[in-house]
Amino acid sequence: MPFISTRGAEMVSAPEAIVRGIAPDGGLYAPVSLPRLEKKDFEALAKMDYASRAAHTLALLLDGFTEEELLPMAKSAYSRFDDSAIAPVKELGDSRFVLELFHGPTLAFKDMALQFLPWLMTASARKQGEQREIAILTATSGDTGKAALEGFRDVPGTSVTVFYPQGGVSAVQEKQMVTSQGKNVHVCAVRGNFDDAQTGVKTLFGDPDFSAKMNALGKTLSSANSINLGRLAPQVAYYLSACAVLLDEGKIDWETGVNVCVPTGNFGNILAGWYAKRMGAPIKKLICASNRNDVLTDFIRTGVYDRVRPFHKTISPSMDILISSNLERFLLELAQGDTAQVNTWMGELKEKGRYEITDTQKALLNEAFYGGFADDEATKQTIARLWNDEHCLTDPHTGVAMDVAEQYRHETGDRETPLLIVSTASPYKFAADVAEAIEIKVEGDAFAAAQALENATGVKAPKAVLALKDMPVLHTRVCDKDKMGEAVLAGFRD
Ligand SMILES: *Cc1c(COP(=O)(O)O)cnc(C)c1O
Q: Which of 75, 110, 213, 469 is catalytic?
């Protein structure tokens, strides 16, 4: 399947799209068409283990890769997960199911793709005849950074440099990053906020002087953030996998299907759900759940995307975002492949901070998507209710999804269609807020909170969180926001 930039007609192969990360015209690479699966294909998927499902899905999606070639990559990518099902589906009452995506080494759903991306990246570079080292630069507001550091750690032919806002990530997230091991990993705090770090990275990508310096060192730049096709493709696999499992166990049927609720920030995870639906997965509504940064809720309800609004810091920080970059791929479908239309919308977003779709396009959007949001108070209440009534311990991002899923059932009266809620992080990654929500007393830091949460609930804390407390800090570099290029180069000299 070839890929096209959302902002122009240029068509490229999957390996080229993965190495580049973003199209030269600033667009994202989107599939020209999608393969179609039938009921019997889901029956076949159900019989495979998770790595085989992933390899099968990626072979369908990405031209230039065979299933035989992808299978060992998938096996390695998912070898460090703490649940043999990799992405297990758990049942709650009332026709509700939870798809757990946090069993990877960094305890958030980013591992599902970032444990796979290094394999896709190095294979793609080989296919493209790229001899230089692939130097990954990433700005993070928390979860992506650590997942990229773990994914690319000691992968030959690559290096990774992560920038995070000093004081702008949670204690656990920071400790995860600054204790990162590996000969090719670099971490630097930026004196500034996440936007400064993100802008700094984007500036480096467009800086010919910096590229020349990297080239002289035998390196070429690439990106591990969620606009890279190599992150999107592995995410499609878990939606197909979950549907296959639910069908196989008779929990859902082919005709009725299942509604899927996804806690959303950059629109990457839920977009993979949309592609799975287009590929024939029996997904009915996609429920887009936001926190107080409800720009997507408004878009789905009014057809107007308006980022000119206050930015809220919430207890679900990985969803604190006002520019959902992956939405651009869905806009291409709303515009029926008209890249000039997408270009216009993106221009308006940049210049005026808003754009509006037509009534017909809005009808199409609403056929597939429902949007809702939950603020911190509602999220905490939902976390408490789920723990007290159903013995289900939930992180704040998943709490948002649980709350919005309930709103959907209440508002639409659709209580019959089974509901799959996507769970994106371990509650222990955000232990302090979860402990507060369920009224457990904590004295001390985030690690004390994790210990208290385990003692009070009996739900085992992942070893990765508790071990973090005593791990040595290996990265102490801090830089100004206009000195990030020098920090990258200094990292290579160490
Ligand atoms: C990144 C992240 C999200 C948001 O996912 P998008 O693909 O950006 O929509 C939700 N929850 C957690 C825990 C995350 O790390």
A: 110
